[in-house]
Amino acid sequence: MTKVELQETLEKLRYLDVPICELQPKINGAFSKLIRQVEAEVSHKHIRFRPEYYFGTGWGCVNKSISIEIPFWFQNETLMGIEDEMAYDGVEDEGEIKMGLRHEFGHAINYAYKLYLEPEWRRLFGDFDRKYRENYRFNPWSKRHVKHLPDYYAQKHPDEDWAETFAVWLTPGSNWRRVYAKTPALEKLLYVDKKMKGIGRESPVNIRTKRDVPIEKVKMTVREFYGADYEDVSPSEQLIEDVDAMKRIFPNGFHSRRNLRDAWKLVHKFSPLIVSKMSDELNVPHYSARKVLRQLESICKTYDLKTRQGDEEEKIIGISVYLSKKFSRD
Questions:
Q1: Phi-psi label, residue 16: left if phi above 0, alpha if psi -120 to 50, beta otherwise
Q2: Which of the residues 80, 110, 289, 308 could staple to 278 if both were Cys, CB 3.0 to 4.6 A apart?
């Protein structure tokens, strides 16, 4: 395992034990850039309305509100890597994320202007109050619906039909007039085009925000959310064992942050002594001992492990005992 691979694996292992409510609630970085790109598409269509975005446990837009839920794993590359390994279809790429954003924006703008109450909307898309079913039958050859998200999602419910139609209309280069020419779906797209030109510069009539399950309320850890084991993100049982050992030797949970020092600095400082001890007592090659100690150092850094001043001898003995058992077993 290279140094980069080691660090990536350690970050995944660390995140598995993080309660979701302790993740960063602010949307920024690469995902914020994708939101700006989709909103630029909206601006190009002369639409002033903007929804609220927040991190939750999946994609969604709370019914009759302007709040769009973004999956928490888009917070950073490490969480996206975990999602990629845990999810059946893997993590979405940038193109798929923008497809999702356009779809959810469609829901939000529908609720913001209460379009679902209009007779023409109901004639084209159906009864907004129809029972919502997770399992639905679809016709893959239907000409009445657009194709945007997988699984013919427009056929799931009138509200989804609207959101999918809006998303196709919004997508740059979709050529919807040509693609859907001479199909019943074209009438829906023309309706979207007409409504957006009519209300685009108007203020919304509904600005209600409501968050379904924001990450601040999710107490479970990332590992509990996925039902994952450490082995699911690390191919190395030895690495998992080393992590457990360092967390045991340097347990966090201090009542006071006074007189604390970084555990990795202690490991680094006494590495030559421990290497010499392993070589003399167990005939362990110097390079093997140094490699393991560098790994222990990386673990301490990743988990931000601490130790108190004055505990140095106790901790060095703990590391030496662990390594003696480790190398004796190997």
A1: alpha
A2: 289
